[in-house]
Amino acid sequence: MEIPSSLYVAVFYGTFLGVLLGYYGSLGCLEEEKVGLFKLKAFINHPDGKSLSSWGGEVDDCCRWEHVTCDNNTYRVIRLSLGSVRNWERGKWYLNASLLLPFQQLQILHLSDNYLAGFEGILSLKRLRVLNLKGNGWFTAIPILSALPSLKVLNLAENSINSSQLQGLKYSGKLEVLDLWRNELMGGIPSIIGTLTSLKSLSLGSNDLNGSLSMKGLCKLNLEELDLSVNRFEGSLPACLSNLTSLRLLDLSQNDLHGTIPSSLFSNLGSLEYISLSSNYFEGTIYFGSLYNHSRLEVFELVGNEKYLKVETENPTQSFPLFQLKILSLSRCILNWPSRVVPRFLLSQYDLKVVNLRYNHMIGDVPTWLLANNTKLEYLSFKNNSLTGVLDLRSNPKHYHILVLDFSLNCIHGELSPDIGSIFPRLEVLNLTRNALQGKIPSSMGDMKRLVSLDLSNNNLSGEVPEPMTMGCISLEVLRLSSNSLHGVFPTKSNLTRLLSLSLDDNYFSGEISRGFSNSSRLVLLDISNNSLRGQIPDWIGEFSSLTTLSLSSNCLEGAVPTSFCKLNELSFLDFSHNKIGPTLPPCANLSNMKFLNLQSNEFTGPIPHVLSEATSLVTLNLGGNKISGPIPPWIHLLSELRVLLLNGNQLEDSIPLHLCQLKSISIMDLSHNHLSGTIPSCLDNITFGREVVFIDGTFFSDAFAKMYTATSSYLYESHLSMLQQDIGVGLASPGGSEEIEFVTKSRSESYKGKLLYYMSGLDLSGNKLTGPIPPEMGNLSGIHTLNLSYNQLTGSIPETFSNLQEIESLDLSHNMLIGQIPPQMIELYSLAVFTVAYNNLSGKLPERKAQFGTFEESSYEGNPLLCGLPLNQSCNPAREPPATAPANEEKEYSWELSFLWSFGGSFGMAFLGIVTFLYLNSYCRELLFYFIAKHAPFLRV
């Protein structure tokens, strides 16, 4: 067959062009641009940096260098991705803009995360469409955009730009995306943004914008994405928001917005895909049904609202919505009141990845069907509702995607599914605390190789801890089994090498402390208190070099504290209370970081351990209920951070040292039931005892284990702004050692812990041998709540200055030798609830029965015979007071006494007159009487 000549011509020219293009293609990038890249590299690395090391290496073609992209046809550089190429240790710097002039075809320039502070000269790139300067931190000035006429995307997030530096935006007529997230903008929304007529995506999130949310300029734009989150906008939502009919993303979270959320807002914005209104002050009712026709909706977030907000998810006119949600976060609201049902529209959702319905007061059975319907679910939390029923997982398939499952603080009962571990093989957080679960812990838990946190505390679980779990959960960092009915011995075979926090308190574990703990050498918190453990503290306890919290209280432990205890250099909370440990602490103990030390009710003897003088960070020290003797040491003043000092119930002697007065931060001091003598130091008024304004800081909170577990959902909302993937954050906190103080107040022993410790103050010196008067300076303790000086040998009067104890609630001065009158000014102590001065030598009239003194009964004053006035029966003025109505038997007794006195007086008078008459008439007897008087009583002679 003859081939047409035209085909030969075509083949010839094709071959020619192919060779020509291949020839030029082999040349790679332009020499001018290659030289420009070398100069740019040298400038970035000046003086001694080593970034971009591959440039100029074995590959000569700069189009094949990393961070460089060329056009496939012209071989001109069109993209430079130079993010994070300069080491942060080299500080902030300015880029010479002229170094970019060789790249006139450049369309995309990434210079993010380089600590770049600005440009030297004018950045002139006419083809540039995208400029990314995110995360430099120091960048303060917007480039002159008139030299960037093609710019459409400007990312200035995470820099230091303020509102006055935005004027350069007026030359950006083609700008479509502006990201100013996390800068230093203040005031209202900058008015210049309203002039950017081509703008489609805007982020002003994480700034310090404030005032009412005025959007006059913004509402005229054709915005598709708007992020105003994490500011301080206040007031109600502007009505013009509903004009933004092209809006796909709306984020107003973490502001101070209030008022209602109108249903018309959602019904007009039919293109919405992403809505976040979390952490505001909205109130009223929001009707979720107004979103049912939004077929594009994927994300809805409304959590952490600080007002009374009702949310009604049910739509009476439409059973199921048109959308298929990916993310639903709806918590801390009044959901579906009064039915409080789990949203029924979820029955039609099959593509959910994150469901957060915490703190919503919902009732009904556990919605396990959510797991069955959404096999791609990654996060599911119904924490703190009122769900009941059984966590029935038998019909559920394996869930390979779920990372977090949280049904804590509900009313779920029944047993855990035996194969729960195989159903959730990739689960990382399981929280079922504070339910009513029964039965044993399934051995299949050991199949959860990726489990990071397991919390089954505060249930009714029984049996032993299964060994397959301690051997199989190799990723476990937090294990909480507190407050159950578990028994036996913790498995000695354990592979929990990553464990950081272990809480087994309030169970029935017995035997010696398990050797299995020793395999968890990274432990930060260990709480095995309130069990039936016996034996001694093991020597291997010293292997926990990172331990900060150790609680062994309320067991049957005995013997000495091992010397290996001295290796625990990080301890800040130690509770050995209610055991039989003693007789002292090892002298080598390192207590420099110790804040809370409780050795109450043990077998400690001898003087207060001198090693405590090194515990200068101590906040609470409890040595009560031991057999410690000797004086309170003078070095006690070194513990300057002390807020609570409990030395009660020991055998301490000598006087109260003046050094105690230097502990000015003390709020609670108990020296009761010792053998202390001498006088009460007048300088005790130097101590705070609640006088200062209460400031709730971290003083009374132990450094218990706390860690934020964070995973990233596979869901990624496609946005032009700085929107990351949906983060899944869960706090892996263990309360650990809860600082609890036992202190006698209002005549009974009370326990104080947590925030109560900030408000409680008291001084107890009762049950000692203190003498002398009560110092009047003690009336200066105006913030004290409890003062107990009973059962001593105090003398003198009650100081009138006690009327200054305006916060006093309990005052006990009983069983002393006090004299004088109770100061009448004390009726002004309006907080006084318990008052006793029984068994002293007080006298005089009792204070008027007004205010609190009108509530005290006779028992408050008994044992003081010279006191008078109500409520005692002893009258202060019996002659002037009308006789009280007496019972009939008392009247009869009084009548008999009166008759006896009259008859006795009359008889005595008659006898006396008879003797006088007899002597007058009989002279002989009269002479004998006078002779007897003269001889035996001459002083009666006249």
Summarize the main sheet: 30 strands, mixed
Supply Rg: 43 Å
Averaged pLDDT: 87
Output the number of helix runs: 9
Number of strands: 63
Envelope shape: elongated
State the helical fraction.
10-25%
Structural features, described:
- The N and C termini lie far apart (190 Å).
- Strand 53 (740-745) and strand 54 (748-753) form a beta hairpin.
- Mean pLDDT is 87; it is low at 1-26 and 879-896.
- With 942 residues, this protein is of the alpha/beta class.
- The chain has nine helices and 63 strands.
SSE topology:
Elements: H1 5-27, H2 31-45, E1 68-70, E2 77-81, E3 93-96, E4 108-110, E5 116-120, E6 130-132, E7 153-155, E8 177-179, E9 186-187, E10 201-203, E11 208-212, E12 225-227, E13 232-235, E14 249-251, E15 256-259, H3 263-268, E16 274-276, E17 281-282, E18 284-287, E19 299-302, E20 309-312, E21 327-330, E22 334-335, E23 354-356, E24 363-365, H4 369-373, E25 379-381, E26 386-388, E27 404-406, E28 413-415, H5 420-423, E29 429-431, E30 436-438, E31 453-455, E32 462-463, H6 467-472, E33 478-480, E34 485-488, E35 501-503, E36 508-511, E37 525-527, E38 532-535, E39 549-551, E40 556-559, E41 573-575, E42 580-581, E43 596-598, E44 605-606, E45 620-622, E46 627-630, E47 644-646, E48 651-655, E49 668-670, E50 675-678, E51 708-712, E52 727-731, E53 740-745, E54 748-753, H7 756-759, E55 762-764, E56 769-773, E57 786-788, E58 793-795, E59 810-812, E60 819-820, E61 834-836, E62 841-845, E63 866-868, H8 888-921, H9 923-936
Parallel strand pairs: 2-4, 3-5, 4-6, 6-7, 7-8, 8-10, 9-11, 10-12, 11-13, 12-14, 13-15, 14-16, 15-17, 16-19, 18-20, 19-21, 20-22, 21-23, 23-25, 24-26, 25-27, 27-29, 28-30, 29-31, 31-33, 32-34, 33-35, 34-36, 35-37, 36-38, 37-39, 38-40, 39-41, 40-42, 41-43, 43-45, 44-46, 45-47, 46-48, 47-49, ...
Antiparallel strand pairs: 1-2, 51-52, 53-54
